[in-house]
Amino acid sequence: MDTEISNAQGYVYILQVKDINLPVCKIGVTTRTPYQRCAEINVSSTGDFIWEVAHYVAVNDCMKLEALVHQKLAPLRQKRREFFNLNPSDAYQALCSIMEHQDEFTLVDIIEPEQPEKPSVGVQKRHAQGVQRNSRANESYVELLDAFTNVLNIKGRPFGQLNKPYFGMSDGNEGVQWSTVVFTDTGKARMGVNLEGMKYANWPIASFLISELQNPELEAIKGNLSQPDEIFVRITRDAWQVTSRPFIVEEYIGGKEHALPEIDEMLWRSMLNESLGCLDETKRYRGRKSQEVTLANKQKNGEQKRVLPVSPHLYVWTEISMEKDISDNVKAGLAQLALVYEWIARQCL
């Protein structure tokens, strides 16, 4: 939200994800221009898509109008965020409906916001070629995310950025999550079971680690899977710098990502103990522990070693095809990991 606003005239804007059609939008206010505000959001964003302006209106009381729109669309709002799980055009219709039934709002004349300058002809041509080349991939990406939300019957929560190496969608559950991710450089996709080192309800990652150390079930799970060699396990050490997670040399617990059959009882116990060591034992492991880590990207001041809060992050995944019937591929990926999801969720109790 634009912090300079105080019940003033200004813009209520609706942003959409750039270059790909997803049922998600951002609704906010600004007293400057929607294009300036959108540029700021894209610069400051650390974990969302790249945005562009879809719609906006200039009104006499933008704060109140935004509040009413947020209230009307509250069931579709992502927790603690100004993002909504619906198409920008539907959000705009909701905004217009409020304007039509509320006499207190009037359109005002503000200097028409200027869109960013158009690139030179050469740059435009290269951009157009890129869009044409990637249009088929973009369609399959949308189909994958739509299939993921439809098969699980969820709203879904997007993560990543289209201009970054990956983006995807999770079920948004506070604890064990289903997720799907696309790697834009290779065009490959994964289906995964995800458990982050987050508080959620009483630190489920801590419950999983303690339960699995006391009563390990991994070997039994491996024996019940039809294709264990197609499933991979990754436990990473997340270092926290406010809300961002810098890349660190000590990222992989157990040294690397492992194919499931590679993990024997000794390696698994070692990984679990190292993961538990990333949590604060004085709080019964319900909190992050501070450790010295090595920043992978050297800082401007030359600093590489830093003491930061850390937490373990478990991710189990299998690759899914982007060919043929993507909905069937999503169902197959979910079925392949169903026992894994049930195991992790059970050990979190």
Task: Describe the protein in words.
This protein is of the alpha+beta class and 349 residues long. The chain folds into 2 domains: 92 residues; 213 residues, BirA Bifunctional Protein, domain 2. 34% of the residues lie in helices and 25% in strands. It contains 8 helices and 12 strands. The strands form 2 sheets. Strands 5, 6, 7, 8, 9, 10, 11 and 12 form an 8-stranded antiparallel sheet that branches. It has a 4-stranded antiparallel sheet with strand order 3-1-2-4, sandwiched between helices. A hairpin with a 6-residue loop joins strand 6 and strand 7. Helix 2 crosses helix 3 and helix 5 crosses helix 8. It is globular, with a radius of gyration of 23 Å. The chain starts with 9 loop residues before the first strand and ends with a helix. About 6% of the residues have low confidence.
- From the 3D structure, determine the CATH topology of the largest domain: BirA Bifunctional Protein, domain 2
**Which class of secondary structure composition applies to the elements?**
alpha+beta
Measured distance between first and last alpha carbons? 38 Å
The CATH class of the largest domain is identified as Alpha Beta
User: Could you say what the CATH architecture of the largest domain is?
Assistant: 2-Layer Sandwich
Along the chain, the helix and strand elements come as EEHEHEHHEEEEHHEEHEEH
Give the proportion of residues in helices.
25-40%
* DSSP helical segment count: 8
* Mean pLDDT level: 85
